[in-house]
Design a protein that fits this description.
Structural class: little secondary structure
Strand order of the largest sheet: 1-2
Helix content: 10-25%
Radius of gyration: 14 Å
Order of helices and strands: EEEEHH
Number of strands: 4
Strand content: 5-15%
Length: 100
Amino acid sequence: MSIAVTLLPEEPTGAVTCASCAARCCRLKVMLLTDTGVPERFIEYDDWGAETMAQGDDGWCLAVDRHTMLCTIYENRPLICREFEMGADECLTERADTSF
């Protein structure tokens, strides 16, 4: 299940919304700390055996639909993704990163 985010016309240009972002948080390394039901096909194991979200060769989370930029496992997304708050310091830091 995916949830669409719509940028409302009355929002000022540059407003911090997921709709006006290039999903930079979806290119971060995400460890799976709790069981939320992430499908096995989206799980990788790091060098120490920890579960992480699978990423493509380009660094994108494999659960992101690259055409819609929506999470294809939104209801089962990892805890870290659930806690990554839009507009919080971590979000703003990632949005400002021009290395992508």
